[in-house]
Amino acid sequence: AYRSINWTNPIFWTQPGSITAKLSKDRNRSDIKIFPIPSSDFVKVSFNVEETSNISIQIIDLVGRIVHLVEEKSFVGNFDSEISVENFSKGTYFLNILINSKSYHKKIILN
Predict the structure, then answer these.
(1) 10-32 pLDDT tens trace
(2) Which of 45, 46, 78, 88 has its CA 20 to 30 A from that of 72?
(3) pTM of the entire structure?
């Protein structure tokens, strides 16, 4: 394939704000906000829970270890959490949000 000498790789980025988390069965929940991505010091997670629910937020490394865990029992209302990631190694992690029996997933990048 031909490449111009002035060609550069495209840069992909996401704007802070409304990143839709994907439900494990390919359905989306648009009110879950995860930002900024990529991040270097914190990741903010927010969403609304309309009925009393048990909530678990996990950050999992590529090896499958849970490196951070937030749990709330019998929660209802606006959930807002700022998770410090400044002591994590740079790289790719997975953010899992469990609301009762429903699981939402998002890849996060730390730089």
Answers:
(1) 444 444 444 444 444 434 567 88
(2) 88
(3) 0.72
